[in-house]
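User: Some background: our group keeps a shared notebook of sequences we're curious about, and every so often someone picks one and asks for a predicted structure to add to the entry. Today it's my turn. The entry only has the sequence so far, pasted here. Could you supply the structure so I can complete it?
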Amino acid sequence: MPAVPKQVVRYFVSYAHTDGSLKKELLGRLRPLFASARAYRFEGWQDGDIPLGTDWHERIQAAIEMCDFSLLLVSPAFLASEYIREHELSKFRRVVPVALGLVPLDGSIDLRGLERTQMFLHEGKPFSQYPQGPDKERFVTDLFIKIIHTLKASLPPPLTSEPVPVPAVSAGSAPQASATAGAPSEGPRTGASSLSPGTVFRDLDHPWCPELVVLPQGRFMMGSPEEEPGRFDREGPQHEVVIAYRMAMGRTPVTFAEYDRFCDATDKIKPEDQGWGRDRRPVINVSWQDAQGYVQWLSDQTGKAYRLPSEAEWEYACRAAGSGRWCFGDDEQQLGQYAWFGGNSGGRSQPVGEKLANPFGLYDLHGNVWEWVEDCGHDRYSGAPLDGSAWMSGDNSRRVARGGSWVNFPRGLRAAFRDLVAPEIRDFALGFRVARTLNLDS
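Assistant: Of course. Here's the predicted structure to add to the notebook entry:
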């Protein structure tokens, strides 16, 4: 059937001219996300669109009346603008206020009710306080999610269309291994008894059962050295971790095809795919709790103890015996061969297994989707386990996500980079992969 057109959503940008550079940066980061929206087509208006020789006040008032919502870029200069207070704030029907800078919403200025309106900040900080890097990208991504939620809550339901089909690997077939992957050319085996490192197998001979790769035992330095370019404090202190047990990890992130089988079997609502397609794309819009439900169900189906990898296991698997910023070393120019990220993804996730595998035979550990791991959130590694186990004491209101995603840039895809996320969050750049320990009778 023909696709149904997206619902047009018009937005007005209200800002102080002295904040022009911040406005340009924020909108430049938002536009690719707006373009990726499944149900809406965003059309923005700002005063730069006023034709020469026309009444600018009249044009602004007409644009406010026409737009579905107004994006307010709030800063001290914004608050000090008499024109904004007198001629814009009172006219807006639906607002999304975003803190560009620290603002005193203390009643000292008449803001026509804005002081009672929830304002967007990320972890309590405005846009201007984030340096270039993953945290600023996260600010913009979370803002986009808030805007979508606001539209869904306040506008009539958008017209929808069937997801656009995408070329897919046939069900159950494995991605083609790279020359360094170590995966057997004859494809995945079933069962894990006496399998050597690098072997690909499934516990059940069904296409919905994830492929696993046996990892070698070993030791590595977890975290980043203080001199690493792009390093964040939460990546230290660097410390040695020993993986002295046999384990296997998902060859790729869990796909929609695999996760949808779980949803069908348990009558669970399937997660949104943003209109990008399902099948071999990594599942997204799943919380940490959703991932836990999946691994429990998979354990019940296979009779094996599936789980999320620990943070240490994840980084060990990602580094694959290397010590560079990425699994292939420190040459950023190679990243596009191994990862879907903000520079090549086209503004969406991509089918798994299409880039090169790392030396352990694992795909998509850098980019495509963030991956939940088991651990509670900690701001530093002081006191972290040294045996590969998950760090389960501490702040369970945050869980760790690893790997970066299609929306991030190279700094956020480094092997050591880590994000702390509330476990109930469902995000269009966040998925997971599975792991399990291999015993003698596995």
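Suggested note for the entry: The longest helix spans residues 134-154. Residues 159-186 have pLDDT under 50 and may be disordered.
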